Amino acid sequence: MKKTYQIDVDCANCANKMEQAACNTPGVKNARVNYMALKMTVEFQEGQDASAVMEQVLKNCKKVESDCEIFL
Amino acid sequence: MNQKQKRMLKRIIISAVVFICLQLIPAETFSRMDGLLFAGAGRWVRLALYLANYYIIGWGTLRKAFRGIMNRQVFDENFLMAVATLGALALAIYENGDYGEAIAVMLFYQVGEWFESYAVGKSRRNISQLMNIRPDYANIEQDGKLVKVDPEELEPGSIILVQPGEKVPIDGIVTEGSSALNTGALTGESLPRDVGPGDEVISGCINMSGLLRVRTIKRFEESTVSKILELVENAGERKSRQEDFISKFARVYTPAVCCCALALAILPPLVRLLFMGLEAMWGVWIYRALTFLVISCPCALVISIPLSFFAGIGGASRAGILVKGSNFLEALSKTDCVVFDKTGTLTQGVFQVEGIHHSTMEEEKLVEYAALAESASSHPISRSLQRAHGKELDRSRVGEIQEISGAGVLATVDGKTVAAGNDKLMKKLGVAYRDCHGVGTVIHMAIDGKYAGHILISDMIKAHAKAAISALKDLGVSKTVMLTGDTGAVAEHVAAKLGIDRVYSQLLPGDKVEKLEQLLAEEKGGGKLAFVGDGINDAPVLARADIGIAMGAMGSDAAIEAADVVLMDDDPMKIAKAIKISRKCLGIVYQNIFFAIGVKLLCLVLGALGIANMWLAIFADVGVMVLAVLNAMRCLFIYKL
Asked: Whose CA is closest to B252, among B312, B321, B190, B298?
């Protein structure tokens, strides 16, 4: 399952960090951040609850870049 | 500018003004205070003023740095800037030296951050403006009045009205009215297209002259314009090798520079102290280490690469070339072999009568008989005969029609037996026929068992096909290949006319994949193979090639799905243009990579030697970023290519 979220982040390197953080969140198979379009596409592992996983993703992203936002 | 940027700009300006004022106050002003108040008062007042200014410009960074530490993000750029500037301040306090430096570094750092955010926002808007083809509303008729509605709410089959000057919001078929449509936003083509009742119209086109009544055939989300926008927006997700390289580099670069900084602060003084018997000079080396930290932020690198690709893809889409990802743009720049499907790519896929030979009657008459005999068939060849005839066919003149598979037809027309078909049919009927010296499909005609001449039909080569092939050759494409299901003679003829290197003819769709595999195996040294097709029943080949290019995709979903690069119209010149755009874009990407990394390394070396101070370091850092961003924006301008 794949879902796309609108995000807000200020710098390109921070976007890369968010991508890393999202990828390392349990339940996420793969994540891509498109900095220019301000979008995050998350591919979830089988049988995962997207909204629960995304909350964790947001938490992890906030850890690496306090100024970021994911519009869930 | 958004709220955040405005706030930041205000703080930058205030801090800059305060900074300049502070620099202008002569040193005596402070030393006079010593006499007025207490000893050392001037020093403290001066420090307090500078600290206040540092707080104005730097508190956001300090706060973020603190949060970073709490989250164990040591190599966070805010943290690094905070350490560098606080360190410089501490040194200055210790030496009662120049506080200005720390503030200047913070100031320029914020200017750089602000510029980055502004430039990216601006280019984001620029590109979406270039792509401004999204229709905002659709007109429907309600109780005799025009009502504007959200196009997303309309079901397929609704009747919408498109007035002159408006965009067609949803794909559909014209039911009433005729007009000229400007397809420029989709195809980059400036020639308007005439439409009338029964014609299909594509969303995103602009109606130029008359009122059109259109019956929609798709939902808004499935319409061409929505598909294109989605495709361009998502293109950034398929990253090129350069982008991956830069994000990996950034991950290693910052920690590496920080470790170097630490080493620079500790090792040289220790060596001097212990082994050389010299003074340690801690201040000097710590200062040099702090200079390192200033250069350690990788942002200039990280921003300019995706920005270049984004601008390149945006620019290409303006020319009617949709590239589905940065990785395909990268592959396109390395194209070494271009494989064409013949029909619909190099030729129009429309048959035309090229000549009528050895006719025993008036030529029009012969064509009329042929058209009538073939009137029951919808094969492209019989349609081309009907077109050549040009007049309405009176079907009542045609009696019994007998199709002889693989040979032709036998029909009764005006009571005469008309045979129209290939040489096999003539042999079967025992009619002596004359071979044609032209290349194409030959239809022999026999009327009442007597040879009546033949009609030569051939697929028209596209006007720009030859120029397109030579443009590819000029770009250094070493091999051009044509695959076709057509007969050898026709294929050879077309290839010779266009200057194509290799031809494989009489291929079934499955054979095409096999041939492509062979050609792929021949590619070496990183050269890429592009396959160009019209998206109709060549999806497997499009998918197998390094780069699948679909042509004439206006309205063809299958082509948009299957291909990596989609040409909105069917002009083969666009292939060369796409390659040129990709090369320009990749050229800019490499310029930015080498320029940004080069300047950073130079600054590191100069900083370690003590030649570059913090001022120079921050200037170089911000300057590189500004130049890299401006350079990246050049990818948008592709008109001269």
From this structure: B298
pLDDT of residue B584: 94
Structural tokens at position B506: 């009489």
User: Does residue B420 form part of some domain?
Assistant: yes
The answer to whether the beta carbons of residues B321 and B581 sit under 8 Å apart is yes
Query: Is B39 part of any domain?
Result: no
Angle at B356 between CA B355 and CA B362, to 5 degrees: 140
CATH of the domain at B567: 3.40.50.1000
Residues B422 and B354 in one domain: yes
The domain total for chain A is 1
Taking the CA of residue A34 and the nearest CA in chain B, the distance in Å comes to 6
Range of the domain at B446: 348-461
Chain B closest CA to A11's CA: distance in Å? 7
Q: Which residues contact B378 (CB under 8 A, 6 or more apart)?
A: none
pLDDT tens digits for range B380-400: 777 788 888 888 878 888 888
Domain assignment of residue B67, yes or no:
no
Residues B154, B229 share a domain: yes
Question: Quick check: is B394 catalytic?
Answer: no
Q: Which residues of A touch B310 (CB under 8 A)?
A: 36
Read off the tokens for B525: 């040294």
What pLDDT digit, counting tens, does each position of B500-520 carry? 999 998 887 778 888 889 898
What is the pTM assigned to this prediction? 0.79
Which of A10, A11, A36 has its CB closest to that of B236?
A36
Report the complex ipTM: 0.81
Q: Does A67 touch chain B (CB under 8 A)?
A: yes
* pLDDT top residue among B355 and B297: B355
